[in-house]
Amino acid sequence: MSNTEKKLEHPRLRVQEGTGVPEHEGYTKDKIDRRKSRENKPFLADKVYFNSEATKDGILHFAHGMGDDNPLWCNEEYAKKTKYGSIIAPPCYLYSIHWVPMGSLAAGVHAWYSGGNWEWYRPIFVGDRFKAVCILRENVEKKGKMAGGQNIYIGYTDVVYVNQKEEIVGKELQHTVTTGRSEAGGAGKYRHTPKPVYSREDWKKMLDMYENEEVRGVEPRYWEDVNVGDKLVPMIKGPLTVRDMIGWLMGAGSPFFRAHKIEYDYEKRHPSALEFVEETGEADVPELVHIFDAFARTIGVERAYDYGHQRMSWLCNFFTNWMGDDGFLWKMSGDLRVFNQAGDVTTFEGKVVKKYIEDGKCCVDVEAWAKNQRVENSMPPNLSTIILPSKEHGSVAYPDPESSLIQEVVNARPLKEMIEAGR
């Protein structure tokens, strides 16, 4: 084969020639079977997507990227006076380390994050360095409206974050929906969703909610002062804009956005990663569904939409606002049920449903949810658990991870070794 013919193999040249990029790949039986062979075999991610260390600037960028101005994350002088003695990171800062499960064998197949179940065990301090351990769990086959009634797969993956002391700081059981891009685009479940128009009165209400957002801060919320039935002050995010998505990316990073030579080298190695948009005649990374409407329409959504991890971080913001500096978010669960498209408003609400002491930890369970301006549950009610300081029992007692999880982390091997072994 001549050098010229080799160059023509690059997907960008195929687009220019009118032959397009490779057709969207399906989630084939071979890929599904290979994924199954990797289940419950912990492996080390061979790279992080953005941050490998929690820095003062990185924490600030992440917090501001989700619209969270809590001084505990952002103001060094303020943070020095807290029990931590320094800035700490919002719990969901761990997304900026690694937020897409690796090794799931779905390259070229459309997948989106649909929620997760978090557990945290320690605060995240400036200077903490991280590695990520991934453990593929089950992959459940279902029929999905997003795929026009055809098969979708909901894959569950534990992503475990380990600091330089070999402590497990947190982990999330991520839920990822996988289906063919062609099936999703053909179904068009979220096409023709009207873009909302807001009146002056609507804007006044939204701006008032931002103005009155409650950040508990230095005033402790003691366990004894909380009662079942207490409601959390609602919190708003939106109307969603592309600016919000870019702000999020500036803080959380991206697995796909690369520049110039680095991008084109990546495409040559992974041509199926590109998405071809017939409407514009362009091919680029599928992550542009969050930036350009035409890319979103390719997979059946009318307008650019938010990142699932972004919305989950807003839920985290809702809880940390309420619990105050001395509280600790132990468990957080969220499901994403409606695409949050440009122009949509998300309002978070919640209530205390249980109060108890478990192994010395003074806990409250909060049921929380999020609705858009169409009164759809963009995040249906789910339970999360917060540990609060106590007047009688003292400061927060941090939880410990399960011994079985600790052992899985100890047993983790590099993903490269798993691939070389044919798994």
Low-confidence stretches: 1-7
Total number of beta strands: 13
Q: Mean pLDDT, nearest integer?
A: 90
Rg over CA atoms, rounded to whole Å, is 22 Å
Architecture per CATH nomenclature, i.e. the level-2 architecture? Roll
- How are the strands of the largest sheet arranged? 6-10-11-12-9-2-5-4-3-1-13
State which percent range the strand residues make up: 25-35%
Describe the main β-sheet briefly: 11 strands, mixed
The top-level CATH class is Alpha Beta
Helix content: 25-40%
Broad structural category: alpha+beta
CATH fold title: Thiol Ester Dehydrase, Chain A
Series of H and E elements: HHHEHHHEEEEHHEHHEEHHEEEEHEH
What count of structural domains? 1
Shape call: globular
CATH homologous superfamily heading: Hotdog Thioesterase
Distance between the termini: 32 Å
- Count of helical segments? 14
List key phrases describing it:
26% strand; Thiol Ester Dehydrase, Chain A; 11-stranded mixed beta sheet; two-stranded antiparallel ribbon; alpha+beta
